[in-house]
Amino acid sequence: MSDVAKMKEAAFPAPTVEEWEREAEKSLKGKPLERLVSMTYENIAVKPLYTRRDLEALGPLEQYPGFGQYVRGARPEGYRGEPWKVSQEILAASPSEWNEAVKHDLQRGQTEIHLALGRLPFAVESVDDVAAMFDGVPLDRYSLRVDAGARSLSFLALLAAYLEERGVPLSSVRGAVGMDPLGAWAEHGTLPCSLSRLYDEMSEVTKWAKEQMPNVCTILVRGEPYHDGGANAVQELAFALAAAVEYIRAGLDRGLTVDGIATRMQASFAVGADFFMEIAKLRAARRLFAQVIEAFGGGESTRRIELHVRTSHFTKTVYDPYVNMLRAAAEAFAAVVGGADGVHVSPFDEAIGLADEFSRRIARNTQLILLEEAHVANVIDPAGGSYYVETLTARLAEEAWKLFQRVEEKGGMAKALEDGFVQAEVEAVAKRRLDRVKTRKEKIVGTNVYANLEETPIEKPKQAAANEVPPLDEKRVAEIRSALVGGKWMEAAIRAARRRATAREIAAALADGNASVRIAPIRAWRLAEPFETLRKAAEEHAERTGSRLSVHLINIGPLVRHQARADFIAGLFAAGGVAAERSDGFASVAEAVEWVRNTNGTHYIVCGADDDYPAFVPVLAKAFKQAKPNAKLYVAGKPPEELERTYADAGVDGSIHLGSNAYDVIVAFLTERGVALDGEVR
């Protein structure tokens, strides 16, 4: 038999888990495998390897999409029947510019019209404003998604009046025009009126939409307010679920049915950087919402929650902003693999200002490449059956359900927000994130690692002032309020909108005179902000003085001996906008001291190999302090305790190493150089 034939007949033995463990421990040079276990922000231990055993421990898994609790997807055919909606949120400086942008983008691959009233730089106050925005936009051909914030009735009345004037059937509109009062409360700390009255509006809008706009969702449940405050995936799921339960109860109290509420509800989540965690989060979300609807007695078809997903604002950066394209691409991929029904991809410059045509195009095309070139839609639930993803999905759902039950024990989501429980939970995780960013254990490429001091910043035009909002016409408010007495709020509001009443006037007429309780808001922030603040301060100082701040590196020995630590120090200070002036590699203390005398630095760091330090550093430190008594001297790397004392006695001011808090090191340097800092970011 030929060698080739023997090779074809040969079979590779299947190693056991125990054999893998032994080989892995050999690679770790005797260290235990537990060293490879990592802990997530969700307090979930992630193992280095998942096997069939992990799935067996979970019990029976859902085998097919479109059934059960919809973990594997809401539709049996996945994206094969209909792809996810390319739902890019459009922002522009004015209604007319918004109109131009949406028509332009719809012609180039966008499939859903998407806006958030609270994020628009202009107010949508009248039917004329709506007309300016939607002129020439075929609302009967494209899905529409409007995040109306705390209340939606006023805007929906303007939209309905506009559609009637244009002869567009209300029943032809599909998508969502929804409100999320609890999410708005968490974001802003206050509401335009009492929560009870907002629930009244939500119920009235939902009843009206059932008859007039049967294909439009009116209730939004958003996880973004918690995500953007630094929450982990468990918290996003639990708090969104708790808000959904609150809305269901409010609707039931006002005459709606469970099925009537569930079919009008859409959930939305932000997808962050932890790729597999975010996939599992979306899969767990479908399971949890199905579980809740089932508990309330909802029918099987109403347990499928529609998921809108947006790539994270929390992960985006001002500096090295083109890297945001890569972040958004990875996040969008996670959203699609997780089974999102609609996706918004962040324009790479969204942390800087309003997106322009170029950044909108790149964001939109990110989705189109996933769809048209990567063919992601061709496989239904590509993560299904993955040992890791299935295990992570189950753990997330389990932990989110536990936290949801804690919220319920406190009286529900509104009470938990009022008591500060939700805010405290989010803040605890946000603090952990912030600490890890400052110590660079959590890396942000282009910001706290690999910062590029030579980059050309993106310039954005100053945003124009918002359009002037007309004063309330108290007489018209009284007329609308009188018309509302009959109980059909939407019909009365639409009639008022036709007579050119403003959204504020309609909202004022609906007010019940009861103010909302003020709570501590969950402040949105971005991971990169601490270092962006330092770098901006350093740049402003450079503009005032005409030169960039710098530290000086005293390198010992040949390049191979000092380069690693010199690069480490240069990278650390670059994160704060500070340059590094490097010396050649010195063979003697005398050469190093001569170089120090000929430079005008204030902070010097010795960079070399550990073996070179004991003989070099103490002698250098004594000579350094004589040459420059007011300058600071540090060593790169963490010396042993006994050497640290020796170095300190010789005049070394400290050490900078992997365990140092990079943020604090830069703050100390900038403060000593007289740079004005506004204090902590958070």
Automatic annotation (TrEMBL):
<dbReference type="InterPro" id="IPR016176">
    <property type="entry name" value="Cbl-dep_enz_cat"/>
</dbReference>
<protein>
    <recommendedName>
        <fullName>methylmalonyl-CoA mutase</fullName>
        <ecNumber>5.4.99.2</ecNumber>
    </recommendedName>
</protein>
<keyword id="KW-0170">Cobalt</keyword>
<keyword id="KW-0846">Cobalamin</keyword>
<feature type="domain" description="Methylmalonyl-CoA mutase alpha/beta chain catalytic">
    <location>
        <begin position="118"/>
        <end position="511"/>
    </location>
</feature>
<dbReference type="InterPro" id="IPR006099">
    <property type="entry name" value="MeMalonylCoA_mutase_a/b_cat"/>
</dbReference>
<comment type="similarity">
    <text>Belongs to the methylmalonyl-CoA mutase family.</text>
</comment>
<feature type="domain" description="Methylmalonyl-CoA mutase alpha/beta chain catalytic">
    <location>
        <begin position="40"/>
        <end position="117"/>
    </location>
</feature>
<keyword id="KW-0413">Isomerase</keyword>
<dbReference type="InterPro" id="IPR058549">
    <property type="entry name" value="MeMalonylCoA_mutase_a/b_site"/>
</dbReference>
<dbReference type="Pfam" id="PF01642">
    <property type="entry name" value="MM_CoA_mutase"/>
</dbReference>
<dbReference type="InterPro" id="IPR036724">
    <property type="entry name" value="Cobalamin-bd_sf"/>
</dbReference>
